[in-house]
Design brief:
single chain; alpha+beta; 2 helices; 29% helix; globular
Amino acid sequence: QQNQPKGKLGETIAALYLRKKGYRIIYRNFFARAGEIDLICLFKKALIFVEVKTRWTNQYGSAKEAITPWKINSLIKTSEYFKLLNPDLPSEMQIDVVAIHLDGQNKLTTLEHIQNITS
């Protein structure tokens, strides 16, 4: 997939941003049959599952618009599976999105952190 290196750049930017906000990243790129979660973090007393969307152009819609109901459902199922495998982690869970836009030189133009997208 040609966007993979760019997607990894977006995930790295998101991880740095979240760390500065006090999130502790415990897992990157968790894969399950239901889907993938880019970043899994601990913040305060919650387990946070983070979907990172990176865009260089709005040709296919904004990063936020890429979070479809199907994608949210996949994130919910995958996060529940992760929790099942890690019962010792906090029971409070939420799903966040970090939407990133970069310019042609891969420089950050905007970063939007949308917390708790399922509430």
